[in-house]
RNA sequence: GUCCCUGUAGCUCAGUUGGAUAGAGCAUUUGCCUUCUAAGCAAAGGGUCGCGUGUUCGAAUCACGCCAGGGACACCA
């Protein structure tokens, strides 16, 4: 189990720090400093497998040179009973402590990768805490756009990552199935329906212009029994019919789109249900009882400034209807009531200004403001041969998730949407994503996986693999692969801490690169059966890590290409 | 005006949360398939890390101030 090794090394380093404090008669070591003891993987492999820079950080505190402090720490480590973990320790540069891991640690690493297989990298760090990840939550008024596509890709990958980090994750889609937009949707379909019946109509600018509205109207028209019922309905009943029909049908489309993109949800949370359960009134009453609600100028306000928002926010308009904030307050309160300890929301960039008031709301409920994280997923700009693809949300002419999917496929789509930091803009080159060449990082990574599978298949089932003598793996390219594997748990942990999957795309490319270099220089299958067995064992570990990383991102790991 | 993001090689971007000599891919030039998949590998050139000041053992990274680009700032959802 590799995490154990990391923990033991950290413990040794901390022990060393304590010794250094004693030697300098500096009293007990502050907690902050102990927490500051971390390991990193040096970029230059001549600096060891892992390194620690704590000696430099303590220099001014202990009034000693970093080298002297490092010497004390290293001395302490060498006396410990865990020396078998490292093959060597050295002090270099300004006072870095460089650790060269023992052969056996790497052997154990490879063994645990192959034993744990799909579970390699999983930790119990988060201790099974219940986490609610809400994402996409697009209004059911049309097909999903590229913006939603990126949110879907990020959300799904992040859910996988957080599960690996030991959270009990629930993926939820907040379904905005009532309100003004839905009303407009209903009216849009209703008008198109009349149009199809031969009536002359005026179709307002602010209604949904898309072709799909006409398709939906036609669907109703072709349904005999629906038409009959409609004839008996009052205008209000008709409107309700079209609203219900529209949201239901569009949600079916959205679900299908998400399915095709392999984005999974555990729960679909209906705003309509929330409203009819009276949860909004209840939530506002509770806020009122706590003094966070007041009336002014005929509207009802939430005192969000009490928690650092710029200004107070209206929850109930002068016309008596709620703003978007009101159901959102009720919804988030319900998230906590359902037992979630940590909330993560993925929103589009247009909701950026909305964060402070939502944070204020959860504090008004009595929760810590850090109990909720909001991730803003920036827009992706599509390019085709270097020219931006025009996008307009008006007229229903936006590029949809389905179009991207049809053009570049699921794997390239998922990978490309994750390739940049989530809160940065992303340029998505459709031509590049389609290319089956080295320029395309998706294929580069998948190709490494397929190559390994090819070798493993032609090797057949080799039972001696389990008893392979891993000491035979002494080539630099083999060491590089092991180092790269070692990095995987670090990468997963970083993604979980930063709530951003993008680092995994960078990591996988570097692991694939290490493999391709190895492949080019060394043959796995040879007459030397011992070496063959050891190399098979090594590449099996590489394959497992590649597959795990790709799976986390929602990309397939093909066995042949 | 306020807030967020971005500025690193000709282009697209990494840079392990402040570490060691700033790294990849593309493009350009040049090598490598009789051998487990050439969708691959290797070599070369290419840098005022937007500008300035500060913080310290140490800054692409942090703070402040500029410059440039993108986005967000409703009794909309």
Structure description:
- The protein has 561 residues and is an alpha/beta fold.
- It is 53% helix and 12% strand.
- It is built from 21 helices and 14 strands.
- A five-stranded parallel sheet has the order 6-5-4-10-11, with helices on both faces. It has a three-stranded antiparallel sheet with strand order 1-3-2. It has a three-stranded antiparallel sheet with strand order 7-8-9.
- Helix 1 packs across helix 4, helix 12 packs across helix 13 and helix 18 runs antiparallel to helix 21.
- It starts with a helix and ends in an 8-residue tail after the last helix.
- The structure holds one RNA strand of 77 nucleotides.
Round the mean pLDDT to the nearest integer and report it: 91
Count every beta strand, where a strand is a DSSP E run of 2 or more residues. 14
- Binned strand content: 5-15%
Structural class: alpha/beta
The helix content is 40-55%
Described by strand count, sense and barrel closure, the largest sheet is: 5 strands, parallel
Principal-axis shape equals: globular
Please compute the radius of gyration using only Cα atoms.
Answer: 29 Å
SS field, number of helical segments: 21
Query: How far apart, in Å, are the first and last alpha carbons?
Result: 33 Å
Strand order of the largest sheet: 6-5-4-10-11
**What ranges have pLDDT less than 50 throughout 5 or more consecutive residues?**
none
